[in-house]
Predict the 3D structure of the following.
Amino acid sequence: MDSPAPLRTAREHARRAVALVEPLPVVDLALDEVVGAVLARELVALLDLPRSTPQRWTGTR
């Protein structure tokens, strides 16, 4: 009769599971195509947004 498999902790199971996973390749998509996607790298705006200064909103100078 075979001996039972050794018991593993939840941490050991998690470590082994993570070791089996490989990241998907990075793809460039238009903004309207990314619903439900996860960023693979930092997103940087090409322009400062909003373009107007907060002083215009509050009336201060």
In short: Helices lie at 10-20, 54-58. The two ends are 84 Å apart (CA to CA).
